[in-house]
Design brief:
about 500 residues, mainly beta, Immunoglobulin-like, 5-stranded antiparallel beta sheet, 2 helices, 40 strands, about 0% helix, globular
Length: about 500
């Protein structure tokens, strides 16, 4: 770990000069260095969620102090630092964990962890690490051993840690070294879904195998090195979870198939005295849930009713926020609700939608339909072109994170690409059989264009109707697509300093 200190950040008042001492901690390892490739550093001050000050300097030589100049004298200022490459890409980010009052009489210390905004993917035996700052054509994927198959992952708000859920426990990983920290919390049964609070104090894990229910974990006790058993609340058929407003929200009886019979409900569990409140019924089956960290309001996609609803802390009745079919993943970032939508059928595609938390000012960006390719092995071995191009017919995203630069979103998606039988080999036998490719992918999407900055295929399964002239196939790749170093169906996504 190395420290960078800004000693020249000055707050000017009417009679005296105050000083803001900005202390940045950054990893020493080259592959984790948030200033690698950076040309400039920008200090940003925010008040009530609005930017009120920004100052940009060239990246100094190692060991030199940082001098950002004057900042406003004002109460309740939040500070962020962004390291930016020449092309404008944010390659490093840091965020203060609390607001400070800047006055003209005394020095104020602001500490931050400066990190590269990595994306971390769960679902494999190891944690898959994606450097979301790297450009196409560069190596940007590695794996990290964290002590077991990974089922969930989330970065702390201050960027110092990852909270990782394995098949049997919850543990912490340092973002400065990418090494697991000492200690873990055993889970009563296999995890299903997972969330942490915005302040990094609490984790909540739902369980769908006996005993069914919700585990509440005080992460500060784990950080302090004390032995810890989670508080457990019995809840039948729990699904997605979220934390905010001092409660854990749990989606009960979620949609687990394509059939919409029955209804779901939402249960709140106070973190400081865990016990399930009476369920709040929804109008139909629901699949995904997000929580606004500022208000604690739960936002739920009721897919079988083609609507998104909000439930305020205290157990209010659901209120309609947005009505549309095809909503997939949800998240809250910058005081706005973000979601993915999807259109099925020929040339199925995704969309990225954001709006006010009350449903106002919606903005929709349609993404291109994805393409996959099947390779006929017999033709390939004969040195011929045996490539079959398939566009998506079913396509949905199940995880979404807005990156701290506000210019990219990361998604996890699943898509089915269906091809019809084609050609005549005689006797009613087709040359190419009916086939289907099922893929899991991570995509980093540029919001200004809707195009992929990164496209990483995590797994590809191909099946076909036997008996055609061509009767053996493998998954190919399209230009701009990369394969994960390990094949796995993803289960969770977290971007450091991103939304969740």
């Amino acid at each position: 770990m190395r420290a960078l200190t800004a000693i020249g950040v000055i707050a000017l008042g009417a009679c005296h000069e105050g000083r803001v001492r900005l202390e940045l901690s950054a990893p020493a390892a080259a592959e984790l260095d948030p200033q690698r490739g950076a040309e400039s550093l920008t200090l940003v001050a925010l008040a009530e969620g609005r930017e009120v000050y920004a100052s940009t300097i060239d990246v100094p030589a190692r060991g030199e102090a940082l001098g950002f100049g004057e900042v406003p004298v004002r109460d309740e200022l939040w500070f962020e630092v962004r390291a930016t490459a020449a092309a404008g890409r944010v390659v490093g980010f840091g965020r203060a964990t609390e607001a400070v009052d800047v006055n003209d009489d005394e020095e104020v210390r602001v500490a931050m962890e400066l990190r590269r905004p990595f994306a971390y993917l769960a679902g494999a035996d190891s944690l898959v690490v994606v450097d979301a700052t790297r450009e196409p054509g560069e190596d940007y994927v590695t794996t990290m051993v964290v002590g077991g198959p990974v089922r969930g992952v989330a970065g702390s708000r201050d960027g110092a840690e990852l909270v990782v859920v394995t098949d049997a426990s919850v543990r912490l990983v340092s973002t400065s070294t990418h090494a697991a920290l000492a200690g873990e919390v055993p889970l009563p049964s296999a995890p299903f879904a997972f969330a942490i609070s915005d302040d990094g104090r609490w984790a909540a894990v739902s369980h769908r195998t006996a005993p069914e229910g919700l585990s509440i974990i005080d992460l500060q006790v784990l950080r302090d090195g004390a032995a810890l058993a989670p508080a457990f609340v019995a809840i039948e058929r729990p699904g997605a979870v979220g934390i905010g407003g001092g409660v854990a929200w749990v989606l009960k009886d979620p949609l687990d198939s394509f059939f919409c019979g029955g209804t779901s409900s939402v249960v709140s569990v106070p973190l400081d005295a865990p016990a399930a409140a009476p369920p709040i019924p929804l109008t139909a089956r629901a699949g995904t849930l997000a929580v606004d960290p500022a208000s604690g309001t739960a936002i739920v996609s009721v897919g079988c009713a083609s609507e998104v609803v909000a439930i305020d802390v205290g157990g209010s009745a659901p209120r309609l926020v947005y009505a549309a079919p095809g909503v997939g993943a949800l998240t809250v970032s910058g005081g706005r609700l973000w979601m993915t939508g999807h259109v099925e059928g020929p040339d199925a595609h995704l969309s990225i939608i954001d709006m006010g938390l009350d449903g106002s000012d919606p903005r929709t960006r349609a993404l291109p339909s994805t393409e996959e390719r099947a390779i006929a092995v017999a033709l390939e071995e004969a040195g011929q072109d045996g490539e079959i191009r398939l566009t998506a017919d079913l396509h949905t995203a199940f995880a979404l994170s807005v990156l701290p630069d506000g210019a990219h979103v990361a998604i996890l998606e699943i898509a089915a690409h269906i091809g019809e039988a084609a050609g005549d080999a005689g006797g009613g036998r087709p040359i190419v059989p009916e086939m289907q490719l099922l893929t899991y992918e991570y995509q980093l999407v540029r919001l200004d264009t809707g195009l992929d900055a990164q496209r990483l295929r995590l797994s590809c399964t191909i099946t076909w109707e036997p008996g055609a002239l061509l009767d053996d196939f493998r998954c190919g790749r399209v230009p701009g697509q990369d394969d994960s170093p390990v094949a796995f169906p993803a289960s969770d996504l977290s971007v450091l300093y991103g939304s969740r």
